Amino acid sequence: MEKRTIAEPFKIKVVEPIKMTSRAQREEAIKKAGYNTFLLNSKDVYIDLLTDSGTTAMSDNQWAGMMLGDEAYAGSVNFYNLEAAVRELYGFKYVVPTHQGRGAENILSKITIKPGDWVPGNMYFTTTRAHQEMNGASFADVIIDEAHDSQADHPFKGNIDLNKFQSLIDRVGAENIPYICVAVTVNLAGGQPVSMQNLREVSALAHKHNIKVMFDATRCVENAYFIREREEGYQEKSIAAIVKEMFSYGDGATMSGKKDCLVNIGGFLALNDEKLYQKATELVVVFEGMPSYGGLAGRDMEAMARGMYESVDFHYIQHRIGQVRYLGEKLEKAGVPIVKPIGGHAVFLDARQFLPHIPQDQFPAQMLAAQLYLESGVRSMERGIISAGRAKDGNHHYPKLELVRLTIPRRVYTYAHMDVVAESVIELYQKRDSIKGLEMVYEPPVLRFFTARFEPLA
């Protein structure tokens, strides 16, 4: 029997018009933006695949909750609803709201890291590593080797290599490793998941050495879906049950609610250790706000609490993953080089293979993202040498993966939009040999991919 189409598990109640610009308008816009898609105005974008962070379409239930915002300065009822949701769905005891995920990363780094420490993780993430390094730590990548190979077809490319983790412990000492950061899923590897078996093994090794396990929980529901689909013994389990088991192997988590909590702003730090929680509440009042709102309005916390329950609905996440796969499979069928297997939140173009004639020092992924916008009005983003930044010696980090991320917002676009994106990428691939590199003409000292500016090479 032919595989049935999975339609959107929702009806459209409100629409936001979008329009296509002319090539001349896009030429002016990308030049004004310094060939950095982050600096484009959204009004000049046709289909926006820059990020899935905060770009979710909220449900009628969430919007109804927004009207029930208790905007008390302290003790808002919406905080207690959020706290109850975190405890029920994720299993952590304590919750500190933050304005978004990087607020939680900042607080976690400050309360756990001392200068000279090391923080291992399954591949870096930009803001996470920045907070760790700004507080005196060095990052150590302990992900399996397959994660750095775009064509390796491993079901759990986000897994941590236990031998790499143990080697780091032996080399620097467990006392100098405050925690291991486990991202579920791994963004810069292509949205790749971590297996439950690996989480159990990492937890056992870390706790044997009194090292805490801290999750980057941003896309935990997507990770749970992959476990259900690919790992033996989980096919009959609910998404909620899988999520809760995942977090049972950790001591805390940073959460950007702008992804798998289905909201446009918000996040939190979740912890089990009461002493760490006390330290976190002392810092949140300095950087964010009261421990019961942490930089958020009551209505935002209510929307996040309701979104958490919606996110573990199987039909929602099945469609979410299916829509990403739909785009990826169309590109793969046309011969466009992408990261395999197709991940949870995005399709990643392999810019090294797409533009093999452009050396990494000339920023092929950055130029590919700019050219895709120029040709079609589709906005994507670079995830390669620009995102990797510079080492302490001032030289570029040279990641093995040089990628362009086509990130799918949640509940926003239809399959027809994915068709348009696929056609645009395929057309660009057919004239890839004419694309030249870039030079960087402005570079900020931290998180340069957000605001760096470029000019085309002659």
UniProtKB/TrEMBL annotation:
One of its GO terms (molecular function) is tyrosine phenol-lyase activity. CDD domains: Tnase_like (cd00617). HAMAP family: Tyr_phenol_lyase (MF_00543). It comes from the Bacteria. This is Tyrosine phenol-lyase. Homotetramer. Residues 48-423 form the Aromatic amino acid beta-eliminating lyase/threonine aldolase domain. The modification N6-(pyridoxal phosphate)lysine is found at residue 259. It holds the Pfam family Beta_elim_lyase. It catalyses: L-tyrosine + H2O = phenol + pyruvate + NH4(+). It is an enzyme of class 4 (lyase). Belongs to the beta-eliminating lyase family. Keywords: Lyase, Pyridoxal phosphate. The keyword Cytoplasm does not apply. It comes from Sporomusa sphaeroides DSM 2875. Its EC number is 4.1.99.2. Its cofactor is pyridoxal 5'-phosphate.
